[in-house]
Design goal:
By secondary structure, the protein is an alpha+beta fold. 23% of the residues lie in helices and 28% in strands. A hairpin with a 3-residue loop joins strand 7 and strand 8.
Length: 298
């Protein structure tokens, strides 16, 4: 008897043509904790740390609305020395900030609390995060590992593997922080090309899921501008107005030359038919898709 084929949510999403536009989770602060052992399915929440140390980090991260991710370097399981932690913060001005530290024992992680309340340093290079969290979703490992290998060979000091970032069916997923830019549906070749362009401040629409400082309809509007007028810098477009009428949003965008100075974009939301959206569970659910119905140069 032939065994049934293994279901992979990213394969199914590609076959359906699922849109990943407007799917970047909202947020502007990240806490990274280097953990070289096996990652639990629920990431930081599942780590066996001293309860007091874990609680103080969790509480501070919640208060700052920060996302906590476990990270590790690709192919460096035997790396010696203390592990690292970081607090990365996005600022709309473009002055992105970072603060790094090290930890040897659980109690050292309390330093993250102080870092969450500090402004952080300017001028640090961005961090490239690749989700390879196979215990959370098979596709994250199957598609993420070739991508992190390719990126690590090119930028060994910038790239980290990380736990779940959302959107398993869009694996491989790459997050560049504190820039707050999500990319999806990547493979080894496209990831190198995408990150290379990003590091020169040229963001393309092809694999862009969205900017984390924007809400989904706003993300979709900016992605549409990039598709129509070509790549742009992270701060070349700004959302300066948003109104909603039921399932329709009107987004006003201002741009820097040589991009259009003003755009009015209409975005409509709709529910997709129910499908199995992750590898882990057989339950079906629908997703929200965002479609640009009109764009006018103002």
């Amino acid at each position: 008897m032939t065994p049934p084929e293994r279901f992979l949510c990213s394969d199914a999403a590609r076959l359906r043509g699922d849109s990943f536009v407007g799917t970047a989770p909202h947020g502007s602060v990240w806490v990274l904790i280097e953990y070289r052992g096996a990652w639990p399915a629920n990431g930081f929440d599942g780590l066996r740390l001293a309860p007091e140390a874990k609680e103080v980090v969790f509480t501070a991260a919640q208060a700052a609305r920060a996302r906590v991710l476990l990270v590790k370097r690709h192919g460096r399981a035997t790396r010696e020395g203390p592990a690292h932690w970081a607090v990365l913060r996005y600022e709309s001005s473009g002055a992105h900030r970072q603060q790094w530290g090290t930890w040897r024992c659980d109690e050292d992680l309390a330093e993250i609390v102080e870092a969450l309340g500090a402004p952080g340093e300017l001028g640090c290079p961005p961090v490239v995060l690749v989700c390879t969290h196979g215990r959370h979703d098979t596709c994250c490992a199957v598609r993420g590992r070739p991508v992190v290998r390719a990126l690590s060979e090119r930028w060994p000091n910038l790239v980290w593997e990380c736990t779940h970032v959302g959107g398993d069916r869009f694996a491989a997923n790459v997050v560049i922080a504190p820039d707050g830019v999500y990319y999806g549906n990547l493979d080894a070749d496209s990831s190198v090309a995408t990150v290379e362009e990003h590091l020169t401040d040229r963001i393309h629409a092809a694999h862009l899921r969205g900017y984390t400082d924007l809400f989904p309809p706003q993300q979709a509007a900016v992605a549409a501008a990039l598709r129509r007028f070509g790549p742009a810098g992270r701060h070349d477009y700004a959302v300066t107005g948003t109104s909603r009428d039921r399932d329709c949003w009107r987004i006003h965008i201002t741009g820097r030359p040589p991009h259009p100075m003003a755009l009015d974009v209409e975005v409509r939301a709709s529910r997709t038919p129910p499908h199995q959206l992750t590898c882990r569970g057989p339950m079906t659910s629908s997703a929200i898709a965002y479609d640009v119905t009109s764009m006018r140069i103002g």
